[in-house]
């Protein structure tokens, strides 16, 4: 990600093509326009935002509602994303609901951080965590201090399960695992400890409010990509939606897309799409370029992926509202006060303060209310 700094073109303006109008592509486009380059964004889909986009869903009764492509939560530590939103005219204070981090269960046990400077908030939250034995709180505090002393660095081969093996089982089940799955979308045995430590550092140990949960009040396309597209278009850039780029054609000294010449091309698609583009582009390229493209594609093709399942369910009947907003329901709850739903029950296996599943689609359309939180599952199940 390019660093925030005052626009200062270091080269003559370039003709830049960006493939993909997900958040990465649109972030790059905004920065390139700030730097004075001539930008064209090509997006295969008709909607901007990629994986983090709004999706129009038809309800069984025929009504159409906007939902998100899965539950997305930002955290306060996403300072570059927040800066980009401000740049393109989105006010994060109104577009996002900011809640202090609370990983609590319906009986009130678990972690809730006070609104204090970091890392005092984390230390106080751990010491005050309800339902945890002193032995467990001190073990987590000791581990956190150890990670801080090591500069949040560890052996790159370690998994989160390895990193936390010495922590009491309860902490691993009720704190580390839900946090890891929600942050990295990967079970602790397969998640990189180094990446997890980076998340902990940014969220809990770097800045006040870094661990706050930021819950979108508007759909994900409106939250950034559409505003970014308007902002760059007003400055002479082009956003071409509904145009997949299958291959780039090299005719020295330019890359060509649909006959248009570009000085540089930035591929901001998923790795698998980028591999396809590289392989296709290599076919007609000179051997020196083709070899580089094949080498890159070979490396990128080794990346393994894990699907995230999003379930949209519709509640049959209104039920009692949550006494307090739960973070999982909040994206919908805050859009329509007194309505509540969960969109991705698969993401956090033991959701603190979770309401019974209904859907963002349903909640936005007919404002069903949350059922009371289901009883805590017995440990070990
Ligand atoms: C269900 C779900 C929940 C998630 N929850 C969170 C969360 O809570 N917090 C969080 O931070 N992250 C979350 N993520 C991850 C986040 O969505 C992604 O990391 C992020 O959206 C990736 O953005 P990107 O721009 O790199 O790629 P993408 O969003 O994949 O964008 C790539 C774009 O390139 C386009 N494209 C592909 N091939 C071509 C081509 N040949 N020509 C032109 N265009 C092309 C695609 O259509 C797409 O629009 C979640 C992801 C999912 C799926």
From TrEMBL:
InterPro entries: Amino_oxidase (IPR002937), FAD/NAD-bd_sf (IPR036188), Zeta_carotene_desat/Oxidored (IPR050464). Residues 337-381 are annotated as: Disordered. Residues 345-369 have a biased composition (Low complexity). One of its GO terms (molecular function) is oxidoreductase activity. Residues 24-281 form the Amine oxidase domain. Coiled coil: none annotated. This is NAD(P)-binding protein. It comes from Ottowia beijingensis.
């Amino acid at each position: 990600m390019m660093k925030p700094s005052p626009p200062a073109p270091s080269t003559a303006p370039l003709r830049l093509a960006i493939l993909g109008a997900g958040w990465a592509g649109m972030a790059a486009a905004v920065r390139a326009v700030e730097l004075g380059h001539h930008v064209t964004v090509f997006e295969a889909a008709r909607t901007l935002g990629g994986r983090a986009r709004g999706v129009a869903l038809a309800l069984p009764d025929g009504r159409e509602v906007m939902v998100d492509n899965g539950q997305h939560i930002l955290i306060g530590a996403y300072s570059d994303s927040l800066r980009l939103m401000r740049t393109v005219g989105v006010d994060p204070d109104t577009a996002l609901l900011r809640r202090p981090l609370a990983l609590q269960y319906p009986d009130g046990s678990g972690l809730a951080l006070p609104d204090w400077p970091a890392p005092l908030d984390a230390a106080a939250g751990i010491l005050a965590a309800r339902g945890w034995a002193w032995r467990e709180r001190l073990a987590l505090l000791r581990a956190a201090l150890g990670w801080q002393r090591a500069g949040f660095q560890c052996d790159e081969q370690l998994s989160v399960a390895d990193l936390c093996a010495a922590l009491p089982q309860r902490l691993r089940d009720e704190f580390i695992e839900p946090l890891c799955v929600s942050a990295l979308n990967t079970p602790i045995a397969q998640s990189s400890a180094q990446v997890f430590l980076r998340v902990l550092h940014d969220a809990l140990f770097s800045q006040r409010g870094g661990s706050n949960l930021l819950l979108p009040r508007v759909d994900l396309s409106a939250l950034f990509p559409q505003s970014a597209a308007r902002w760059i278009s007003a400055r002479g850039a082009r956003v071409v939606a509904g145009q997949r780029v299958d291959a780039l054609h090299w005719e020295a000294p330019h890359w060509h897309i649909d006959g248009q010449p570009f000085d540089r091309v930035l591929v901001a698609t998923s790795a698998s799409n980028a591999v396809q583009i590289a392989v296709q582009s290599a076919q007609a390229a000179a051997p020196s370029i083709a070899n580089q493209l094949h080498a890159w594609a070979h490396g990128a093709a080794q990346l393994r992926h894990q699907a995230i399942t999003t379930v949209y369910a519709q509640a049959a009947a209104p039920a009692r509202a949550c006494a307090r907003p739960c973070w999982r329901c909040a994206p919908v709850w805050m859009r329509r006060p007194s309505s509540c739903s969960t969109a991705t029950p698969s993401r956090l296996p033991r959701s603190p303060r979770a309401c019974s599943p209904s859907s963002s689609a349903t909640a936005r359309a007919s404002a069903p209310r949350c059922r009371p939180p289901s009883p805590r599952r017995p440990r070990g199940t």
